[in-house]
Amino acid sequence: MTVYLLCFILFSVGLYCMLRKRNIIKIIVGIIIAEYATNLFFILVAYRREGRSPIYSPDQTIVNMVDALPQAVVLTAIVIGLASTALLVALAIRIYDKYGTFDITRIRELRG
Amino acid sequence: MNPAANIIPLFVIIPLAGAFLTSFIAKRFRCVSDVIGNITTLALVIISLWAIKIFNTHGILVYSVGAWKPPIGIALVLDGLAVFMVVTVNVVAFLISLFAIDYMAKFTSKWKFYTLFLLMLAGMNGVVITGDLFNLFVFLEIAFVASIALVAFGTGKHELEAAFKYAVMGTLGSLFILLGIVFLYSFTSTLNMADMAVILATKGAGKNIIAMTTVLFLMGFGLKAALVPFHAWLPDAHPSAPAPISAMLSGIIIKSLGIYALCRVLINVIGLTAEVQHILLILGTLSMVVGVFLAIGQWDLKRLLAYHSISQIGYVVLGIALGTPLGILGGLFHLFNHSIFKSLLFLNSGALEYATGTRDLKHMGGLMKKMPVTGSTNLIASMSIAGIPPFNGFWSKLIIIIAAVQAGQLWYAFWAVVASVLTLASFTKVMKYAYFGKMGKDLGDIKEVPLTMRISMSIFALLCLCGGILLIPGVLDSFLIPAVMVIKSGITQALIVMGSIG
């Protein structure tokens, strides 16, 4: 139970960072933290106590395996996260070129 | 597996192959990118129209990817709703790519545009045809990441700012969706949507987890669809993109990633409870009214159109959330109509920007004489969105309002009428300031836009004019009714899908 709680706290830290920080880079870091908390939660859901890795071998009887599917799925989620993070950082660089600042309160030309 | 099901993966393969070829070949031979882009989208239109026929002869088709049987492998499902969405997405995408030939000529790297455009299309088609919850998330991210890059395509100050805002809000939405998927997986131990619906129905209990996931999906897909409390990014992101992309974003992205996915997950997997239905009704009405009120004071043409997208999405959600067959019919028909006339309006605004170089309504005027095709198509689209007979928008709004009255929801019907009147008012303003009235200063040497742009806009206008044909009994049964049945049958749809695996 504690580990789920810690995972939730990690997600909240990411969310707070994403919504409250004024620096673009910190917002991106917040997104990464929240993403990793989600991935971690997915892995935790699949974890079985005393479980072994999900590899089949003919001479053993398998009693307690961790769930293999979330591990494969999380791998995909990490790759997706990588793609969107790379794009966000690229955007941040271009924004710095144009505005000369990372402060979102000074990057506010669109309104109305 | 039914051999006819082999058509399903083509919806993803063709645009992906097109994107690959464009980035590979067109980098060296510039002129090829137009040809590849348009041939790809044209092929998709033909296949999606063919899919209507196949669906009507074979019923629901399930394709198992890699021949792994569905609860284990990934399933691609072509049911009534998927056929409906595939046709909407691909027809609009083809006409927009036709428009882009000349419009995008002013940008230096057109082949990059077509690559991203086709990737986005692949993502949207994937979201629509997939039968697997995590697969839906993957395709959703493909379309979403491509669309961020396209919003920032001009790499000006405003484009970058809007793209960053869009990226942060959208990523937040994606996180909520992924978290919802994790909760559902932890409860059901499956990712196949049909299988999941069956397990959720039989396993019982788990009321808390259902409530939790419903809220997560509402926030996640609400952010993608820009329903009102989650709409802040839309009026920045949609106007900043190049006009064809604005048309794509407003026309189909917010529908296939937002509304369609929301319906699919909430209605076909989790099952719609009375409370959620009520929440959707309120969100829909709020979007409808707030969107149109914010739109009416805008002077930036594309920003005005973006606010109207929020408002019209409200109609779609309202119709679907009414839950009666007539309401769902109205909602889906309005979804189709909105993707036609809002794309047309954005293309018109793009044509104006192409010709005059401004989006500010105050600097336009009297353009009807100089640009007759743009002017008249814009008039048709304006009348469609405002709900004037006999254009398509009138029929769908009429159906939604009648359905609301029949369901006893008089207040919602009242607000729908109010929003419609305000829409008419704000488009009267657009017509007056941009196309009629006195000729603006230094607009003397304006020319009509090139041929392909005119063709694309004319076909859209024709679709606006003839949209009502879809309600004629014979056509209705083969196109709209199957889609309505999917939403109407709710979680029992899962049993039908499970039955047709094999």
Descriptive report:
The complex is a heterodimer of chains A (112) and B (502). Chain A is mainly alpha-helical and 112 residues long. Chain A is 65% helix and 0% strand. Chain B has 502 residues and is mainly alpha-helical. Chain B has a domain at 274-471. In chain B, 76% of the residues lie in helices and 2% in strands. The longest helix of chain B is centred in the middle third of the chain and has 32 residues, at 157-188. The radius of gyration of chain B is 21 Å and the shape is globular. Chain A binds chain B through residues 11, 15, 18, 24, 27, 31, 34-35, 38, 41-42, 45, 67, 69-70, 73, 76-77, 80, 83-84, 87-88, 91-92, 94-95, 98-99, 107-110, 112, and chain B through 134, 137-138, 141, 144-145, 148-149, 152, 155-158, 160-165, 167-168, 171-172, 174-175, 178-179, 182, 185-186, 189, 191, 235-236, 240, 298, 300, 303.
Can I get a quick summary?
The complex is a heterodimer of chains A (about 110) and B (about 500). By secondary structure, chain A is an all-alpha fold.
Quick tags:
heterodimer, A: 112 residues, mainly alpha, Helix Hairpins, 3 helices, 65% helix, elongated, B: 502 residues, two-stranded antiparallel sheet, 20 helices, 2% strand, globular
